[in-house]
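REVIEWER CHECKLIST
Item 1: Sequence provided? yes
Item 2: Single chain? yes
Item 3: Sequence as submitted:
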Amino acid sequence: MRLLALADLDELYRAPGKVVLDKVLDHVERHGRAFIAHAPFCVISSAGPDGAVDVSPRGGEPGFVHVSEDGKTLFLPDRPGNNRLDILRNLLAGTGKVGLMFMIPGFDDVFRINGTATATDDAALLAQFEEFGRLPRLVLMIRVEEAFLHCPKAIMRGRLWDPDARLDRSVLPSGAEMVSDQLNLGKLPVTNAQIIDNYRQQL
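Item 4: Structure as written out by the authors:
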């Protein structure tokens, strides 16, 4: 098996076109702003000082991520999760570099942001992000370095929004059941419906 080197990529792939290179902006303009305003979901990635990487989903009502007037900063509230805080620990201990992908149900396009994040628990800022009857614990402030639309091919290949591609949930055990099996914890003391209901109370 041949292991590839960086130079091999130029033999395997053609060079990107001019538009692909030129579409990368250093701010969020009106189309990006509208996209983020309609997006109820994004994925954020980070790397820590030791090279540890993490990627994590974030969600809320459409527009849960705010964009500054000049398009140079994003404000991403942090909601309750499992308290591992992998993303936050990476950012505050490392360079703060992040990558984000915003997605809108039914849209094959993806809007991407690369930048540098800091965190604040400023009360006035937190107050702007009340959702589900709660304030976030902190808000990430992300300085935009690259902003661009990503082509829809991956979503199209994966048929992510295609109703005919949806699987019945019974195909796999619930997430809680799978973790219980992985850790040999035995039968769950509560039903999956109770677990999901508990999650809904913590949104």
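Item 5: Key structural point noted by reviewer: The CA atoms of residues 73 and 143 lie 5 Å apart.
Item 6: Recommendation: ____
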